[in-house]
Amino acid sequence: MALLDRFRRLVQKPGSVDLAPFRAVAEEAGRREERVRALTDAELTAAAAAPDLVADLPEFCAIGREAARRAIGERPFDVQLTGTLALLSGHVAEMATGEGKTLAGALAAAGYALRGERVHVMSVNDYLARRDAEWMGPLYALLGVSVASIGQASTPDERRAAYGADVVYAPVSEIGFDLLRDRLVTDPADAVQRAASVALVDEADSVLVDEAMVPLVLAGAADLDPADPRYADLVRRLRPGLHYATDEEARNVQLTAAGSREVERVLGLDLYAPENLATLTAVNVALHAEVLLHRDVDYIVRDGAVKLISESRGRVALLQRWPDGLQAAVEAKEELEASPSGEILDSITVQELIGRYPVRCGMTGTAMAVAGQLTEFYSLQIAVVPPNRPCVRDDGPDRLYATTADKEVAVVEEIVAAHAAGRPVLVGTGDVAESERLARRLVRAGVEPVVLNAKNDAEEAAIIAEAGAPGAVTVSTQMAGRGTDIRLGGGPGAPVPGTAPAEQEGERRDQVAAAGGLLVIGTGRYHSSRLDDQLRGRAGRQGDPGGSVFFTSLQDDLVTRYAPDETYRGPIGDEGRVEDKGAHWIVGHAQRVAEGVDLELHRNTWRYNQLIGLQRREVLTEREAVLTGDAADAAMAADAPAKHAELVETAGAEAVAEAARQVVLYQLDRCWAEHLAFLAELREGIHLRSLGRGLDPLVEFNREAVPAGKRLLGDARRRSVAAFEELTATEAGVDLDAAGLKRPSATWTYLVHDNPFGSLDERALRGLISMFKGRRR
Q: Transmembrane residues, as ranges (predicted)?
């Protein structure tokens, strides 16, 4: 296996899977198709329930294909069956956009269910989870498999019922939130989830890589001070270069000596005195919010609230927020009312959540670019499934310009020319601000574009559905078309008297095809080539004509952030065009550095969370024994025998056992919440201290976190005994109020960007960039 992995890396195909066995199965399924088609619906359902079906893959594929044809009117192509078989083998299936991943995934989920496995199909949002469960519902029903979906608005009873189905479609965040809530129940009957053995992940690269380290958080009401607006006003007046400096990647900012003196002058205190540590932290957080987080890039303000933008998708990241201190600082910066804050009761990263499933598989259009990470972090291999029809899209070479202004002029000219020829254009921009700036330029040039960004992402499906209409111009952040096909010719359109709707649609399609199909334009390379490929993939679907081209400049944020020392002094042509190969190398080099930095961040954050995950599992093992058994009662009888006997004599053994259970559960949960707070503070402090002393932050973190974790269960038991000793009892039962078991009056869930303080090993990142700088053309 190790030799095979080395060979795959050598040929630039890490994790690729041989498809020959899957193709052979699909071909054999084709030979059985006529016989299976003769079965009645009842016979088809009975055949799907046959105990030996799971061992006969060609028969399963033949039955699944026929069920899909009858139930939803779609006969899976051989390549879709190949994708299904890859998923059933525990791989990630890379299938191009428009090649039918949803159906391939449904057949795989049904296959796992017919094997007796419970399956969670993880989507990226409520809309896709509900749509796919409803769309594929008749298929599942014909195969005798139950299916349900869960969304943000689902009630506990609805969730409990849904998790009872063989296959559950749900956003990955909702599955994580349900797990967190179940971890804190005090009665087993209150839990909603049932254990599932298979995680089938849609948009696998996005979930497993881009969002892998996003912590899902369960918080409880707590009285935390909002950010002091004085600090927002103070840092707003500080001058870059003089009062503060940022690192090369613009990921961290710190006060200079002059900046510290200015802050101390304004606040009238010694900023670095031990008693002013909280003030120092608050100023640093306010500075981070002011300098490094940008409106319409990192977040938008909508309905009087700060809404974070997903970097990988360009959408509003629903329920997502920064850690409370930074969230409050951004709200103070924007002069908004502070949102509710709370104490973190529990959390889990997306990567840890996925890792809980014995079987993991997924599907996406762009997996090979992150094949190494999928293998490293999830032990997943990639099955690259070819399209049903060859892709004929014309991917043009990048057009590089010296300045951003030159680039934007060229982009507008290209769009105007394509629009005049009746060719639809989809433009992918880097952020909200750029999409709106480009739209204004187009309006001035006489073109009325449709803008799709985080400010109107609710209209995404409707906008994208029309992006292929003749002459349509759609300007979008990196979110184009997820879950929605861009059909050449667009939707049905307005009726034309005397012409059938299907005829009209065909005419529009022919008109667009004659003009060259959908043209995709990127206004700059993204921080990952995978996102570039996702944008390109909107054109040329299912053998359609189409084209793509990226416009870049030497002033793009990607270049200035990740290749700041690379200076181009070569020739510049008319209108700012740069043809030199060395200049093009700089752009590619910057993207490679960005990808390397992101990978190192993933590894670093995973290392921190690995220890936390191990400690949490130890606590959960103890909690499960208390929740479902008599561990708490036995512990109190052993540690507080006199009190235990006294309570039993008055209230009875059953009431005392329940009281002991509630006391110990409360103290375990309380100690874990306090431990999480300690680890968050430790990580931030370790990072800041290690930078000044040349220490390894991870080693220093573990040096203090490990002993604290070992003390946790002992502390919880001692607290439990002390609380148990305070209980009083009557013949009616045990009074728990005396033990001070006050749980939060309210809880809520959200996703959080990992804490920017302490999440980076600066020495590792600088070393990585230096390594890339050493690689010449």
A: none
